[in-house]
Amino acid sequence: MNAAVRAVVRMGIYLGCKVYFIREGYQGMVDGGDNIVEANWSSVSCIIHKGGTIIGSARCKDFRERAGRLKAAKNLVDNGITNLVVIGGDGSLTGADLFRQEWSSLLDELLKNNQITTEQREKYKSLQIAGLVGSIDNDFCGTDMTIGTDSALHRIIEAIDAIVSTAYSHQRTFIMEVMGRHCGYLALVAALTGEADYVFIPEEPEENWQKTLCDKLAQERNSGQRLNIIIVSEGAIDRNGDPITAEQVKKVVVDNLHQDTRITVLGHVQRGGNPSAFDRILGCRMGAEAVMALMEADENTEPCVISLDGNQAVRVPLMECVKQTKAVAQAMADKQWEKAVSLRGKS
Ligand code: F6P
């Protein structure tokens, strides 16, 4: 995300804007004070190679309530902020869309409470929003790739490659649990590129997976393979919608095939470290385009998400993407997996 933060700051300054950091995500916007500080060209020097985000991030309960959004609106007006770039997953972008929809009524309420003046009500009557999708899960509809996914994949692949050394030497089976929430993208691509023998993803729950898995592993070993790698997405489920855990998979392998089996849960290792070149350039392009979109917007412009489409940075309607992403989640919850995959489309 730092590459995107850097691009937003520098493109903004380049175009003559004042740019502010809002630290700690929406929490900083609600709390105001030192969380909102002006950025300059050098505040974003030397950050492109760092993982995470230098301005902090938080899951914010307050912003889910209107009272929290009211405080946030007051803080934006106090700081003279009229354009917002939001970097986050579907939760953050849904929040952004709601904030924008409520903007006018929030200002009315602030005016009624004498927290802003009539002049301020007029001056800040419109708030423009551009979203950037930052998530390792690649679970957001409307973009080919989200910022962070490629770096996470690099981390996962490095871990698989490292584990193969032990697996090969000791003829072991390794089960690796990877992140992705309810999206199997990380697991699937890691399995393909890490030459795994089996992968469990939420989008394709199998009937009788225990037998299919054991048959496949036995076949590999019988043909002379010394190791097996199984990737389990953290959101993997069976046909009943019940979770498939690495522990369950291990038990099936040990009980049926008596293979020497270990589990590795990658956890937050895959969410950190230096970003890949792809993610750095993606963040730069998305950040710059977000600023351009804001500069061209007026009060009638709908909030957009900057997305990657066929290697082009394009602007797509924020609400449509959020709606589509929620429809995928609903289809998954309804066990309509094929529908979920087709709704998710290219991403
Ligand atoms: O959405 C990104 C993600 O890393 C998921 O893959 C994972 O399920 C979740 O966040 C972990 O969240 P937390 O850091 O709050 O444990």
Automatic annotation (TrEMBL):
GO molecular function terms attached to this record? 6-phosphofructokinase activity; AMP binding; ATP binding; fructose-6-phosphate binding; identical protein binding; metal ion binding; monosaccharide binding
- What protein is this chain from? ATP-dependent 6-phosphofructokinase
Spell out the residue ranges making up region: N-terminal catalytic PFK domain 1. 1-347
Question: Subunit notes for this chain?
Answer: Homotetramer.
Localization per record: Cytoplasm
Gene Ontology terms, cellular component aspect?
Answer: 6-phosphofructokinase complex
What does this chain do? Answer: Catalyzes the phosphorylation of D-fructose 6-phosphate to fructose 1,6-bisphosphate by ATP, the first committing step of glycolysis.
